[in-house]
Design a protein that fits this description.
This protein is of the alpha/beta class. The two termini are 43 Å apart. It is flat, with a radius of gyration of 23 Å. Helix 3 packs antiparallel against helix 4. It is 34% helix and 22% strand. The chain has two domains: 149 residues, DNA polymerase, domain 1, CATH 1.10.150; 72 residues, Ubiquitin-like (UB roll) (Roll). InterPro entries: Beta-grasp_dom_sf, G_OBG, GTP-bd, P-loop_NTPase, TGS, TGS-like, YchF_C. This is GTP-dependent nucleic acid-binding protein EngD. One of its GO terms (cellular component) is cytoplasm.
């Protein structure tokens, strides 16, 4: 990925796929004497930084905001180190201000989207169409939050509202991880750590410190868990959403494991290493992080 000492070095998104560090995988592979070991992975998309006015098109803002819409979560990289030789787009180091600018641009972009959508459904609302009334009520709540300058990712949703909000692909609804760009070779602003408005990790990309924490934390905010399959051929980590049933988890391997599911033989990874026995679970079993599973179809 390009890195230069001037703003908007990155124009087009750069994609990187990284393995999720997991010591459990290596231990299972040794236990099974596997020929191959395949980790879970997370995809990162490096998108250019947002500046004040991005929602109105400043700094190629509309283009960059459209790139963010395609992601499942947002990692906001915010500089906390001081170095006069490395410029900042605002010509000052103020991490909390940077966070405020970025989040406000997300809010303003969403406010425009919601306002347009509300206008487009009013005819159906006046015709008393049930779906339009439900959407109107939801979007009125979302708009109120956005008009207050707040992110919408804390809004409480009913089950029938979730698909409505999802189809709008709003930016401020996405989970956010704050990545504090620090430097072990220089001075860092430590005073702001307690004021970061959400989950954060510290990373020093020069010395490659904190990168594993970034990967693991990204996995967490996406609400993902890992289960394993293991044998002589391979030990593999599979990524699924937390709360997935056994058939849903099996679909990560092949759709047949969901559609033709009969049962699953399950054991926690530590119990397997200790010589424990598997148990049989049915289609309603909720897979837990660290489960080792063999599916039967």
């Amino acid at each position: 990925m390009p890195a230069e000492n001037y703003p908007f070095c990155t124009i087009d998104p750069s994609v990187g796929v990284v393995a999720v560090p997991d010591e459990r995988l290596a231990k299972l592979s040794v236990f099974s004497k596997s020929a191959k070991t395949i980790p879970a992975a997370v995809e990162f998309v490096d998108i250019a930084g947002l500046v004040k006015g991005a929602a109105e098109g400043q700094g190629l803002g509309n283009k960059f905001l459209s790139h963010i819409r395609e992601t499942d979560a947002i990692a906001e990289v915010v500089r906390i180190f001081k170095d006069d030789k490395i410029i900042h787009v605002e010509n000052k180091i103020d991490p909390l201000n940077d966070i405020g600018v970025i989040n406000l641009e997300l809010v303003l972009a969403d406010l425009e989207t919601v306002t347009k959508r509300l206008a487009s459904i009013q005819k159906d609302v006046k015709s008393h169409k049930k779906g339009a009334i439900l959407e109107d009520n939801l979007l009125q709540r979302v708009r109120k939050i956005l008009e207050e300058g707040r992110l919408a990712n804390g809004i409480l949703l009913h089950d029938d509202e979730k698909p409505i909000l999802k189809q709008l692909n709003l930016l401020s609804v996405k989970p956010i991880l704050y990545v504090l760009n620090s430097s072990e070779a220089g001075e860092n602003d430590e005073t702001i750590l307690s004021k970061i408005p959400g989950a954060f990790v510290r990373v020093d990309p020069v010395f490659e410190n904190g990168l594993n924490d970034l990967i693991k934390k990204s996995y967490e905010i996406l609400d993902l868990i890992t289960y394993f399959t293991t044998g002589e051929d391979e030990t593999r980590a599979w990524t699924i959403k937390r709360g997935s049933t056994a058939p849903e988890a099996g679909a990560a391997i092949h759709t047949d494991f969901r559609e033709k599911f009969i049962k699953a033989e399950v054991i926690e990874w530590e119990k397997l290493l200790a010589g424990g026995l598997t148990r049989t679970e049915g289609k309603n079993y909720l897979v837990q992080d660290g489960d080792v599973i063999e599916f039967k179809i």
